[in-house]
Write a structure and sequence with these properties.
Number of helices: 3
Strand order of the largest sheet: 6-5-8-3-2-1-9
Helix content: 10-25%
Shape: globular
Order of helices and strands: HEEHEEEEEEHE
Length: 146
């Protein structure tokens, strides 16, 4: 096999692996603010989350869909971006919002049982006046957790 063909096959294998690990994207809303949320609804995607990313568009985030309501915790191992996380109950109402610093292993937990968590760039919720008690729209269309 020549080097060019080997390079093409390696590139195809890498893009196929990326596509298999790509998360679906759905639209959410917080008041009149639109969010494009990648959805982490299985164990592998929830464990990797936003690790190793160097940038994220302003309106983009990641929605974690948990298999059951619990006082879930998040941390920032191998995460390069400063983030804010909103924990939400099964109806989509924000329980609490926590700010998280890059590459730390501090636990940031829901104050009471949560079904979802939404990570956005640091300060996104505060800059838009979004506080605990606000209900996010669109969660009813989230995939079932696996």
């Amino acid at each position: 096999m020549n080097k060019r063909l080997a390079g093409l096959l390696a590139g195809l294998a890498m893009s196929t692996a990326w596509a298999q690990n790509a998360m679906p994207v759905m639209e959410l809303s917080a008041g009149f603010h639109r969010i494009e949320a990648e959805v982490a609804a299985n164990d592998q995607n929830r464990q990797v989350g936003l690790m190793n990313r160097k940038a994220m568009p302003t309106q983009r985030g990641m929605l974690f869909v948990f298999t059951q309501e619990n006082t879930h915790c998040m941390w920032m191992r191998n995460t390069l971006l400063p983030l804010s996380v909103a924990f939400m109950d099964a109806e989509g109402k924000i329980i609490n919002i926590e700010d998280m610093q890059p590459q730390t292993e501090d636990n940031h937990c829901a104050r009471r049982p949560a079904r979802y968590a939404l990570e956005m760039n640091l300060g996104w919720f505060t800059q838009r006046g979004i506080k605990p008690g606000v209900k996010l729209g669109g969660l009813d269309k989230a995939p079932r957790p696996q």
